[in-house]
Amino acid sequence: MRLYLINPSNPLVSLVKLRESFWNRFRVWKPLSLMVLAGLTPRDWDITIFDENRQMADYEALPRPDLVGITAFTSQASRAYELAAHFRDKGVPVIMGGIHATMCLEEAAEHVDCVVCGEGETIWPQVLADFCNGRLQRRYDAAPADMGAVPLPRHDLLKGYFFGAVQTTRGCPLNCTFCSVTAFNGARYRNRPIPEVIAELKTIRERAVLIVDDNLIGTRSNHIERAKELFRAMIAEKVRKRWIAQVTINFADDPELLRLAYQAGCRGVYIGFESPSMEGLAEVGKKFNLLKGADFRGAVQRIRRHKIQVVGSFILGLDVDKPGIGRCIAEAAEQYGVDYLSLLLLTPLPGTRLYNDMAAEDRIALNHYPTDWKYYTLTFPVAKYKHLAMDTIIDEAVSCNRRFYAPGAIARRIWDNLRHFRKPLATLAGNLAYHRNLRFSEQAYAAFKSNGGGHPRAIQPPDTMRIESVSRPVQGQSTERLERVT
């Protein structure tokens, strides 16, 4: 039996344009969820994983599969349905899973033969058995996976990546308004057994690894202790990987944690600062950042003193954001001293409180589904923002990125890393990748505007929320956020 597992592309996401930018190869990692499913598939199946974020396949020229499995985030849904139609026209059953299919079950069911809701590990063997016995169901509901029973992914099926990928925890108790992780993976922080994580790391051929956990270190003291145990095991077992991960700002509070993380191979962390104002943090429900206070510069510097780079993520388009917010975010990122700025536009993703609230208020502008899902990359304005019209929010995003990634600003960061012996070449490569992609982003924005914001109509603030335009920004108040696995 021949099985194709596919991670669809989105041509609007600039970081996957490997041919246009050499540096983008350092920003793409293996689709871990498909490798996990491959690990659960009996060895008598002929399995091929296609990652369209690296290379498009000529499916017409390939052997006809017996079954196709597709995963998709919301921004990939349009392409996922195109692929499903292609294979179904040839009589090949198509199964779709992942976060978008789970949150938009009825929509997905219109385009595929079977939808898997939730974490696929618990149900995939049954799905395959049912298919082989001719009784594939239209829907399967998967329970949260036992983290001690997650199989070793088939890392051997994908080659040619700079980054490998591994997962050590799932779930997040923070439940921010814009994030669907809690809805999909639950609020309980679940850990994989450390020996299993170590065993998997040893099977990964890539020297660089992305730990895809939504929050590697957690928020409570027992979470922190578990992270330290993991780092100690990585050191003792001489894993010798260089890795990056997502963490919360409390990562900076424990010197031992920082020391162990670096010794275990940590070279970069992605932190969601979300907003430069306390009002913005309150709006998105980022209570943890509010509790930690406003000394984010001190926190960043403590992390960087351990030779760990920091990517700071900010969200543009909150209800408290007014013209001038782009400059304000760039200034905050520079003040905090982050090595990279990841700027995101507020995007109501299905399954989030933000989506439900904006839908109830008729503030979702791009709602011609499934076509419009391709714009839900966290970089396009898909909603009606309170104080920012479509053109304004795009201009704010462009000005913010131009300011932070200006050649002079990049040079200052390189010099700072040189002075403190902090991997200046890595900083240069990362900043050049972002700087190079500014041109692609601005081209995409120009095309978006010329099409009236995705359609022959402009996106403006709600009539009851219009504000007077100003000639100059005034003082006001982040791939693509790292994609969620499974």
* Overall outline: globular
Query: Helical proportion?
Result: 25-40%
Q: Span from first to last CA? A: 24 Å
**Low-confidence stretches at least 5 residues in length (pLDDT < 50)?**
456-486
Strand content: 5-15%
What class would the helix/strand composition place it in?
alpha/beta
Q: Largest sheet, if any?
A: 6 strands, parallel
What is Rg? 22 Å
In terms of quaternary structure, the protein is: single chain
The CATH class of the largest domain is identified as: Alpha Beta
Query: Can you identify the CATH superfamily of the largest domain?
Result: tm_1862 like domain
Q: State the total count of DSSP E strands.
A: 14
Strand order of the largest sheet: 2-1-3-4-5-6
Please give the domain count.
2
Q: Give the integer mean of the pLDDT values.
A: 87
Name its key features.
alpha/beta, Rossmann fold, pyruvate-formate lyase- activating enzyme, six-stranded parallel beta sheet, 37% helix, disordered C terminus
Describe it for me?
It is a single chain. The chain has about 475 residues and is an alpha/beta fold. It folds into 2 domains: about 1-145, Rossmann fold (3-Layer(aba) Sandwich), CATH 3.40.50; about 160-465, Alpha-Beta Horseshoe (pyruvate-formate lyase- activating enzyme). The protein has helices spanning about 30-40, 75-90, 100-105, 105-110, 125-130, 180-185, 195-205, 220-235, 255-265, 280-285, 285-290, 295-305, 325-335, 355-360, 390-405, 405-420, 425-450, and strands at about 1-5, 45-50, 65-70, 95, 115, 140, 165, 170, 190, 210, 240-245, 265-275, 310-315, 340-345. The strands form 3 sheets. It has a 6-stranded parallel beta sheet, sandwiched between helices. A 6-stranded parallel beta sheet has the order 7-10-11-12-13-14. α8 (about 220-235) runs parallel beside α9 and α15 (about 390-405) runs antiparallel to α17 (about 425-450). The two termini are about 25 Å apart.
